[in-house]
Design goal:
By secondary structure, this protein is an alpha+beta fold. The chain is 56% helix and 15% strand. The strands form three sheets. The chain has a five-stranded antiparallel beta sheet with strand order 2-1-5-4-3, sandwiched between helices.
Length: 499
């Protein structure tokens, strides 16, 4: 088999030679008809030759019409201008006539060729518009559940006649290809444009075959590049390329928005189901606990027991009360909607807040050493004592769960201007940097501890909602000496609000 490039060049040359011979044949036929058959004068013969030139220009193009013009001029001179059957011209006026004929023929062929070229361009634009319309319809019906990049590449290839199409996702950097792989599509160029590293709009390279191009264009939406698309196939106009890229960008953004909406709806339904489950569990736990509490109270009051038995019954009663309180608190946490915590503000002393929270967590702390440092003169804050107490208990309980037994838990408070900041510090392993914000999401569990530490992943989210409802701020940070520190700030009680 020969070289494809050489074979195609040979076909082009053969085609042009065939058209040239056809042009000369038309001139010869016109000359025979005008000179031998009809015996017309030079004026009629000139008009006939001009007509032949126009027909050739409309059919094939400028090169063929130019050859026809030169051949017609020579035949007109030889057969119709005196002396006949000679290329010499006796009358100088015939030189002018011959020159005017040649200029007229060439000009007419040029105009006809331009009109044909414009008609071809208009037809190509019409075809492109039809293809873009069909392409836009197919993108609207695209199934976003499947691989979006592959679907986009398939639709571009199908509607625009490309032999190979590649889509590079600017978010993940992944490639999706359809058609035969080709070395002309450089993946590095695709990736550079997809991530916004390239400054040009369209990267083009001519292929070895005539009329075939390698094209890479950025896919953008609203000035933001979301990917890139590369194709090998017939040349496409610049406006069509921009339209393809824009429609692909719209399809990518639409698919991402649908995915985000689906995730949000799934999260909302999941949270709703969790709330229903918590309510059901609370009801199922509260009923037997109430029965246990009533039975223990009746046994202790109606029957006499030895001291040791009475102590054990007292422990059971206390633990029942503790379980009931924990269940009530868990249900209250579950019913706090994100960003909608209902608060009742009152004057609140920070020292009293810390002491009451520590007292309620006495069994959880179980003798854990505490380092409480509350600076003197800290102004009271305006807050809901129950809500803020619940938030602080979540932070202290979180420190207990994620720090070694026997390690110190430090609680401190400082005031700066009109803001009081409360801090809870532990000596645990700290928080991965990529999770410092995620840990406040509802039901989020850290990757390192979700299987080793019990919990629902709801406490920090509830604490954040409570603090935000008080116009405060809650954040987490890792300490240089080790461990994590959770801090929240609240506005102090203003002078005009004090009693």
């Amino acid at each position: 088999m020969g070289n494809p490039q050489t074979n195609q060049r040979s076909r082009r040359i053969t085609g042009w030679v065939t058209r040239a011979l056809a042009c000369l044949g038309l001139v010869a036929a016109t000359t025979w008809a005008a000179f031998s058959l009809l015996r017309v004068n030079s004026l009629i013969a000139g008009f006939a030759y001009v007509l032949v030139v126009l027909v050739v220009a409309a059919k094939w193009g400028l090169a063929e019409s130019f050859l026809t013009s030169v051949a017609s001029m020579l035949c007109l001179n030889y057969f119709f201008l005196p002396p006949v059957l000679s290329l010499t011209i006796a009358d100088p006026q015939n030189w002018v006539a011959l020159f005017v004929f040649l200029v007229t023929a060439i000009t007419a062929s040029k105009l006809s060729s331009n009109a044909r070229q414009r008609a071809d361009e208009a037809q190509a634009r019409r075809v492109e518009v039809e293809r873009l319309y069909q392409f836009s319809r197919s993108l609207m019906l695209i199934d976003t559940i499947r691989d979006l990049g592959v679907l986009i590449a398939e639709q571009v290839k199908q509607h625009f006649g490309f032999s190979s199409v590649v889509f590079c996702d600017g978010l993940t950097g992944e490639f999706s290809m359809t058609g035969a792989p080709d070395e002309g599509l450089e993946q590095q160029v695709l990736r550079d444009i997809a991530v916004g590293g390239a400054t040009w709009f369209v990267w083009r390279k001519e292929s070895t075959a005539k009329g075939i191009e390698v094209i890479v264009a950025p896919v953008s939406l609203g000035g933001k590049i979301v990917g890139s698309i590369g194709a090998i196939g017939p040349a496409v106009s610049e406006p069509a390329l921009q339209a393809i890229a824009n429609m692909v960008g719209i399809a990518v953004e639409r698919a991402r928005q649908q995915d985000a909406a689906s995730r949000m709806e799934a999260a909302r339904q999941n949270e709703r189901l969790r709330g229903i489950l918590l309510d059901a569990l609370a009801h199922d736990f509260t009923t037997p606990l109430t029965s246990i509490k009533g039975a223990i109270t009746a046994v202790r009051s109606a029957y006499q027991h030895q001291a040791e038995e009475d102590d054990l019954l007292e422990v059971v009663e206390e633990e029942s009360d503790k379980l009931t309180g924990m269940i009530d608190e868990t249900v209250a946490m579950a019913r706090i909607e994100p960003g909608r915590a209902r608060i009742q503000r009152r004057q609140l002393c920070i020292m009293n807040l810390v002491r009451s929270s520590v007292d309620r967590l006495k069994s959880l702390l179980d003798g854990r050493p505490l380092d409480i440092q509350i600076h003197d003169g800290i102004s009271p804050v305006t807050a809901d004592p129950d809500m803020i107490g619940l938030a602080l208990r979540q932070l202290i309980g979180n420190a207990v769960k994620y720090s070694p037994p026997g390690s110190i838990i430090a609680i401190s408070a400082i005031q700066a201007d009109d803001t009081v900041t409360v801090r809870v510090r532990d000596q645990g392993p700290g928080i991965p940097e990529n999770e410092l914000e995620s840990i406040f999401e509802r039901f989020y569990r850290g990757n390192r501890t979700q299987n080793s530490v019990a919990g629902t992943g709801m406490g920090l989210s509830v604490a954040r909602d409570i603090i935000n409802a008080h116009q405060g701020r809650l954040w987490a940070e890792n300490l240089a000496e080790g461990g994590a520190q959770f801090s929240f700030s609240l506005p102090t009680l203003k002078e005009d609000q004090k009693p």
